[in-house]
C-alpha cells in the first residue's frame, strides 16, 4: 500500500516536481454554477503530461446531476473544442443523468469559452483569472 503524502511532500518550494505512478498529484479546479451560469459544476485541470496521463486532448468534467454538492468521481468528461463531445465509451453513455437540453447548454458554454478554457488547460491563466474573464464575458 502506498504511503499517504501531505501536499508539501509533493511540492518543494519553487521547484514543483510531480512523481509518477501512484504518487501523482492531480488537482482539478471547480467552477461553481454561479461562475458559469450553468446548472452543473464544471471541473478543469491544467495539462501536465505527468498528471493528466492518457488525456492528451483538452478536456473538462461536468457534474452528472444538478445537486449543489459537486461529486468529481461522478463527473462526465467532455472535450474542449469547437465541437465539444462527451468522452465516454458508447456503453457508458447511459450513465449520463442530464437532459439533452442541459448537455447542449454545457456544449454551448464550452464553445463560447473555448479560448479561455484552452488557455487555462495550457497553464496560461490561474483559476481566479479564468473566472474573472468568464464573468466579464457574460
Descriptive overview:
This protein is of the alpha+beta class and 138 residues long. It has one domain. The protein contains six helices and six strands, in the order αβββαβαββααα. The chain has helices spanning 7-10, 33-36, 49-52, 100-112, 114-121, 127-137; strands at residues 11-12, 15-16, 29-31, 42-44, 59-62, 76-79. A four-stranded antiparallel beta sheet has the order 3-4-5-6. Strand 1 and strand 2 (15-16) form a beta hairpin. The longest helix has 13 residues, at 100-112.
Describe the main β-sheet briefly: 4 strands, antiparallel
Mean pLDDT: 80
Label the overall shape. globular
The number of distinct structural domains comes to 1
Derived from helix and strand composition plus strand pairing, the structural class reads alpha+beta
Percent of residues in helices comes to 25-40%
Count the E strands: 6
Number of helices: 6
pLDDT below 50 for ≥5 consecutive residues: which ranges? 1-25
Distance between the termini: 47 Å
Report the sheet-strand fraction: 5-15%
Spatial arrangement of strands, main beta sheet: 3-4-5-6
What integer value in Å does the Rg equal? 16 Å
Order of helices and strands: HEEEHEHEEHHH
